[in-house]
Specification:
five-stranded mixed sheet, single chain, nine-stranded mixed sheet, 18% strand, alpha+beta, 18 helices
Length: 478
C-alpha cells in the first residue's frame, strides 16, 4: 500500500526512515496498528456498499501461470510482473499483476457459473515491478467490482453510480469523475492512417496529456494537417455538454466516431438525471492504463491527491481472449490513494479507539475474562489488563494507559467496597463525560451488567465507527 518513506502510514523521523529503507523492499507496505484499523474500516465500508448493490465477493489466487494469464495482459504489464519457476511443474508463475484479467480467466472457465449477469467484487493486492526512481508502489491494495454479461447504457451507468455511492459512503464530499470513451480517440488515430506502433505511442502520449510528444509522433507518422489538428485537440476537450458538441464537429460524418459520442452522451445524461452532474466531467482524451478497455471509461479524482483514486470502464473483448466472449465493465479503487484523500478531510478516517479498558488484580483474573468477554459479545472493543497494583498509583497508571489506548471508559474490578458484581469507573473520555449525568460516574461503582448501558447513550460518532463497520460487514457476509 505504501512506500515506508513517503506515505501516511510510514513511521516518522528521518533516521527511522533510513533504517526502514534498508530493511523493507522499496514500494512494499508496512501498515502499523493504528493505521491498519482505519484502513480495514475503509475497506469494510467499500465492501458493504458493494454488497448492498448485489455484488458478491471473489478471492482470486495470488499466483497465475504466465502462459495462461498472458492472454489477458499487455506486453508492458508482463514486463513488470514478478516471475519465477514453479518447483513442481517447472512452468513460470506470475505474482498477481492485474485482478480484472484474473476474473476474466475465471469467468471464461465457467468457474462462477454460466448464469448472467455476474456481479463480482474483490479486495486484494496486485504486484508490479516499478523502478525505484519511478516513485510508484510495487504493492497496490485494491477494492473493485465487475459487472459481466451486459452491454447497454444502463450497465455503464450502474457501475459508475456504484463507484459514486462507495465514495459517498466513505464520506468523501468533493470528487470528480472524468468520463470518456476510448473509442473516440482510437478511431481518430485509425482514420489518420498511422501505423499500429504509431497509434500505440500516440495513445500513451494522449493518456499523459503530453501534447508536445503527441505532436512529435504525428509529425513522424506524416499525418495530414487537418487530421493532426483534430487528434491534438481531442485530449484537451474536457468539461460539460460543450465537449460533446465540439466532438461532433471533429467527428463530422464518420459513423464510428459519432457512435462513440452517442454512447458517451447517453451514459452522461443518465447519470445527470440521477443527480450526479456536479461530480462529472467529460473528457474526450480519457484513457485507462490497459489496452483491454474498448468503451466508456472513467477516472476519479479528489483534492489533496495528485493522481486518480481509481477508475475503470468497459472491456467487451477481454474475457474472449480466454475463450468465452462476454461484455463487461468494472472499476477498482487504489486503497492507499483513497486513504490519503480521506486524510485530507477535516475529520478524516475514524481513529483507532477502545471502548472499554477493564482491569483487575491477578486474584480476579477469571472475573476479568468473564466481564471482558461479556462486553465483547455486546459488540464493544475491549482491552483487558491484569493490574499489579490497585491503589492510587495503579489507578493513575491505568488512566494513562486508557488515554493512550483512546478508551472511552476505564474501569477496575477491585477496590475498597467494590463488590464482586461491581466495577469502579476510574476514567472516561471527554466525549463521554459531556453526556448528561456521566460526569458524575467517574469514581463511582456500577453494576457490571450495567457497563454496556454506559456507552449506549453515547450519540452517533462517539462509539467506535470501526465496530459498527465490523458489525455491518458480518451481516453482509452472513
Amino acid at each position: 500500500m505504501s512506500r515506508p518513506t513517503s506515505k501516511p502510514f510510514a513511521t516518522q523521523g528521518s533516521s527511522t526512515q533510513r533504517r526502514e529503507r534498508s530493511l523493507v523492499p522499496v514500494g512494499m507496505a508496512t501498515i502499523l496498528p493504528h493505521t491498519a484499523q482505519r484502513v480495514r474500516h475503509l475497506e469494510e465500508t467499500l465492501m458493504t456498499s458493494l454488497g448492498r448493490w448485489g455484488y458478491r465477493e471473489i478471492i482470486p489466487p495470488t499466483f497465475e501461470y504466465l502462459d495462461v494469464l498472458s492472454a489477458g495482459l499487455e506486453p508492458d504489464v508482463i514486463e513488470k510482473c514478478y516471475q519465477f519457476a514453479d518447483r513442481t511443474t517447472g512452468r513460470i508463475l506470475l505474482l498477481r499483476p492485474d485482478v480484472t484479467a484474473q476474473i476474466a480467466r475465471i469467468v471464461a472457465m465457467g468457474m462462477v457459473g454460466r448464469s448472467m449477469p455476474l456481479r463480482l467484487c474483490y479486495r486484494t493486492t496486485v504486484f508490479r515491478y516499478e523502478p525505484e526512481h519511478a516513485g510508484r508502489d510495487r504493492e497496490i491494495f485494491q477494492v473493485g467490482a465487475e459487472l459481466i454479461g451486459l452491454d447497454d447504457v444502463a450497465t455503464d451507468g450502474e457501475i459508475i453510480a456504484l463507484m459514486v455511492e462507495c465514495l459517498k459512503q466513505l464520506g468523501l464530499p468533493a470528487f470528480k469523475i472524468s468520463l470518456g470513451h476510448v473509442g473516440f480517440f482510437k478511431a481518430l488515430l485509425a482514420k489518420s492512417g498511422m501505423s499500429m506502433d504509431g497509434q500505440k505511442r500516440a495513445e500513451q502520449a494522449a493518456a499523459r496529456k503530453d501534447l508536445p510528444r503527441l505532436e512529435e509522433i504525428l509529425s513522424s507518422e506524416r499525418v495530414p494537417g487537418k487530421q493532426a489538428r483534430a487528434i491534438l485537440e481531442a485530449p484537451g476537450l474536457y468539461g460539460r455538454d460543450e465537449v460533446i458538441e465540439r466532438g461532433r464537429v471533429l467527428a463530422g460524418r464518420d459513423r464510428q466516431l459519432r457512435a462513440t459520442l452517442d454512447r458517451l452522451t447517453q451514459v452522461y445524461r443518465l447519470l445527470v438525471s440521477a443527480g450526479m452532474r456536479d461530480h462529472l466531467l467529460l473528457d474526450l482524451g480519457e484513457f485507462r492504463g490497459f489496452d483491454y478497455y474498448d468503451g466508456v471509461v472513467f477516472d476519479v479524482f479528489a483534492a489533496g491527491v495528485g493522481c486518480e483514486l481509481g477508475g475503470g470502464g468497459r472491456y467487451n473483448h477481454l474475457i474472449g481472449r480466454f475463450g468465452r466472449d462476454l461484455p463487461s465493465t468494472g472499476f477498482a479503487f487504489d486503497v492507499d490513494r483513497l486513504f490519503r484523500a480521506m486524510e485530507c478531510l477535516e475529520g478524516g478516517l475514524p481513529r483507532s479507539r477502545v471502548d472499554f479498558l477493564i482491569a483487575a488484580p491477578v486474584a480476579r483474573s477469571d472475573r476479568l475474562f468473564q466481564v471482558s468477554q461479556m462486553l465483547r459479545n455486546a459488540g464493544f472493543r475491549v482491552v483487558q489488563r491484569v493490574a499489579r497494583a490497585t491503589g492510587s498509583t495503579g489507578i493513575r497508571s491505568l488512566v494513562e494507559e486508557g488515554r493512550a489506548q483512546g478508551a472511552s471508559v476505564v474501569a477496575i474490578l477491585a477496590g475498597t467496597r467494590v463488590a464482586p458484581d461491581e466495577a469502579l469507573i476510574v476514567a472516561a473520555s471527554s466525549e463521554v463525560l459531556r453526556q448528561p449525568g456521566f460526569n458524575k460516574m467517574v469514581g463511582k461503582r456500577v453494576k457490571v451488567k450495567d457497563l454496556p448501558s454506559l456507552l449506549a447513550v453515547v450519540p452517533e460518532g462517539i462509539m467506535s465507527s470501526a465496530i459498527k463497520a465490523d458489525a455491518s460487514a458480518r451481516s453482509v457476509r452472513t
